[in-house]
Amino acid sequence: xxxxxxxxxxxxxxxxxxxxxxxxxxxxxxxxxxxxxxxxxxxxxxxxxxxxxxxxxxxxxxxxxxxxxxxxxxxxxxxxxxxxxxxxxxxxxxxxxxxxxxxxxxxxxxxxxxxxxxxxxxxxxxxxxxxxxxxxxxxxxxxxxxxxxxxxxxxxxxxxxxxxxxxxxxxxxxxxxxxxxxxxxxxxxxxxxxxxxxxxxxxxxxxxxxxxxxxxxxxxxxxxxxxxxxxxxxxxxxxxxxxxxxxxxxxxxxxxxxxxxxxxxxxxxxxxxxxxxxxxxxxxxxxxxxxxxxxxxxxxxxxxxxxxxxxxxxxxxxxxxxxxxxxxxxxxxxxxxxxxxxxxxxxxxxxxxxxxxxxxxxxxxxxxxxxxxxxxxxxxxxxxxxxxxxxxxxxxxxxxxxxxxxxxxxxxxxxxxxxxxxxxxxxxxxxxxxxxxxxxxxxxxxxx
Length: 448
Ligand SMILES: Cc1cc2nc3c(=O)[nH]c(=O)nc-3n(C[C@H](O)[C@H](O)[C@H](O)COP(=O)(O)OP(=O)(O)OC[C@H]3O[C@@H](n4cnc5c(N)ncnc54)[C@H](O)[C@@H]3O)c2cc1C
Prior knowledge:
With 448 residues, the protein is of the alpha/beta class.
């Protein structure tokens, strides 16, 4: 059993999340598993990874697929993220990716991210669902002069990897993005943009079901045993026998998981606040007219976007406990971040505040693979707060691997392969590790 390293309320599936996206979209109502069934592939987790894998397995490969979700569909990060369908999908600078892996592998890694970004729009178009797409690309906003120089260097590497982007001076970004004491210019990656993450989740779920996948909500996999070549996954009211299993739980690894996957990924809390709709005068005071997602260059990154209905969304990590008593403190911290970026914004009413878990690993890039000691178990690990473009793509990659399709250079790229190194096993050690990392990052941010 993996430990819940944060307060139990962060893992409580009895209630759906209180996100802005949940309020904008119909609640997903699916039945729980109430029988013993057999399937080709069982998928644990009903987020982008699991739903995309189910969609591709049933639609493209004709395999019987069953998704088990412990909460309701989209209860995890996929229904509650910030909706940045943008790059980069890792915590490493592009130069570092090129340093750690051979050039062809590094290139394949960035091409895969671009392909994943495009896949989101393709899936919506092919399967006929809305995405609430807005903005053009992402602005990475320098929080200091030194950070702008680093962004310029990052841009050079990204362009070498085939990613369209350009560096903007402080003045140029003030024209098309925003001004203020916390911007020193920006890197504009011109592809992708903002989406409604819940629409993507629900669209994938509806499409997967239409193509024959079986999806069960409120059906946590509680026990996992082998019976010969079969995997037997036990839920409270029924069991699934499957030839192959996909572990698609990402940051929510509070249930049973195979020994090979234990302590490979660490959850980290991300917090989001969405204001009430702002008046034109308030937007003028803030000075942000662009609907493209933005994030700053701090290691403890702040991400923000103006939503199409004139609200401001802003999110950031920190807090290593997650208890509800800290909600007010976290909201105050997010308000302070707004004031740092937009000092003339004045007090802003908040309509929504919520939290969620992202998954981080020692490798600092996402991974997928099969377990060495049981290749009939496939997994993904480590989305690093950038799973919108990566996880639907990884779900498709897993489906193609399961179906025995020849994989492209991007899909089998070495950057994604190999399990990340093990982390300390105890919850307090993991929390302490996060606390030390945040202290270190905070110091780095102040010096940069
Ligand atoms: C606050 C926040 C903001 C983010 N913003 C962005 C962003 O703007 N752009 C971006 O690219 N990425 C963002 N991310 C990251 C992105 O949301 C994730 O990478 C992505 O959604 C992960 O998808 P997934 O399907 O792998 O996992 P999830 O969507 O987290 O789904 C995993 C599911 O597994 C289920 N589960 C766990 N254990 C069991 C079990 N035993 N039985 C059954 N089910 C189980 C969980 O209930 C959960 O629903 C953000 C994440 C958070 C939390």
